[in-house]
């Protein structure tokens, strides 16, 4: 066990060691304090000196006649034809710039007045921008066409496009989902959606309500349910670092969609459709109720005979299957097969 700090002087005095560090040479110190900017400046100066020496050597060789321009360019790894083409284009650009620049003050003022009276689109937009006005907005308000605008369509083509209307299901995407009014209000399915991201939850809930409408189901919701908040405290280390802990939190958001007065088969098809197109990060949990008719109470304790499917919902289908299996043509076709075919309830 470590002794308290106040008792250390009595138990054993601590010896102080004197540390002597040799002085660094001034050259080493200056090299360490050298900044990266100074190194970049030195590299640029060295590069400029080298380029200047190369240009001086090139000029000297051309003046003395020791080497022609084409030979010198080939020696430097440049294409003479490309170099001449770029040189001519640069000279032409310089000549156009010199011709455009005004020579006197009166000429400059006259050119400025001409630009103000008959400005082009780009000049006008720059003037608006300098004045603190949004150029594109002002251009649209005043009917000025931008260089990036597409040319207008023919009036007949534009009228034909205006007459076209988007399909109702495309326009319905931008509106609230359509709903059907339940006749009796008997709930048959409760679909609960859970997620950790509210955007994914809202998108998939809207998709589920729209799918229910197009499948002929009356849906209520999505109804917000209370959030589930879970928190954990995990120690970062053990022993003396027990107080160093880290907290975690997980919030689960939920929505409820209730289907009323729906046929069980349609409800199962709706759930299968949602499961096929399930959105990532959204979980589903469904509770389904199936209601029997009042005649079900009278069938309590009724003894069903083997092969009697008349009281079942799919009784007509099973009866048709038995009729096919017992037909003469089917038996003749199944003569060579060992396994017998039978209908199971």
From TrEMBL:
Family: Belongs to the universal ribosomal protein uS10 family.
Gene Ontology CC annotations of this record: ribonucleoprotein complex; ribosome
Coiled coil: none
HAMAP family: Ribosomal_uS10
The keyword Cell membrane is annotated on this UniProt entry: no
Pfam families in the cross-refs: Ribosomal_S10
Annotated protein name in UniProt: Small ribosomal subunit protein uS10m
One of the GO BP terms on file: translation
InterPro entries noted in UniProt: Ribosomal_uS10, Ribosomal_uS10_dom, Ribosomal_uS10_dom_sf
GO molecular function, one term: structural constituent of ribosome
Matching SMART domains: Ribosomal_S10
Domain Small ribosomal subunit protein uS10 per the UniProt entry, residue ranges: 190-287
Keyword annotations of the record: Ribonucleoprotein, Ribosomal protein
């Amino acid at each position: 066990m470590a002794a308290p700090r106040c008792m250390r002087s009595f138990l054993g005095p601590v010896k102080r060691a004197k540390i002597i560090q040799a002085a660094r040479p001034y050259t080493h110190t200056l090299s360490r304090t050298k900044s990266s900017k100074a190194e970049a400046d030195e590299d640029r100066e060295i590069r400029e000196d080298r380029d200047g020496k190369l240009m001086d050597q090139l000029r000297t060789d051309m003046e003395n006649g020791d080497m022609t321009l084409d030979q010198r360019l080939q020696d430097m790894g440049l294409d003479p034809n490309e170099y001449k083409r770029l040189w001519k284009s640069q000279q032409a650009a310089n000549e156009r710039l010199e011709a455009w620049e005004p020579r006197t003050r009166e000429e400059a003022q006259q050119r400025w007045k001409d630009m103000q009276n008959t400005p082009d689109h780009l000049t006008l937009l720059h003037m608006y921008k300098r004045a603190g006005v949004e150029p594109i907005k002002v251009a649209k308000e005043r009917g000025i066409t931008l260089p990036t605008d597409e040319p207008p369509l023919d009036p007949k083509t534009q009228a034909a496009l205006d007459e076209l209307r988007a399909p109702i299901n495309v326009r319905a995407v931008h509106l609230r989902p359509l709903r059907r009014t339940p006749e009796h209000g008997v709930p048959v399915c409760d679909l609960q959606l859970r997620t950790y991201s509210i955007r994914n939850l809202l998108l998939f809930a809207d998709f589920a309500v729209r799918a229910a409408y197009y499948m002929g189901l009356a849906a209520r919701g999505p109804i917000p349910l209370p959030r589930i908040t879970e928190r954990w405290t995990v120690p970062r280390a053990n022993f003396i670092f027990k107080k160093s802990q880290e907290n975690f939190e997980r919030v689960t958001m939920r929505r409820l969609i209730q289907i009323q007065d729906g046929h069980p088969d349609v409800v199962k098809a709706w759930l299968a459709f949602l499961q096929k197109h399930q959105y990532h990060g959204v979980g589903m949990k469904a509770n389904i109720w199936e209601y029997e008719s009042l005649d079900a109470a009278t069938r309590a304790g009724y003894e069903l005979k083997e092969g009697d499917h008349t009281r079942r919902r799919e009784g007509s289908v099973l009866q048709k299957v038995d009729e096919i299996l017992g037909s003469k043509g089917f038996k003749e076709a199944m003569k060579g097969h060992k396994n017998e075919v039978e209908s199971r309830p």
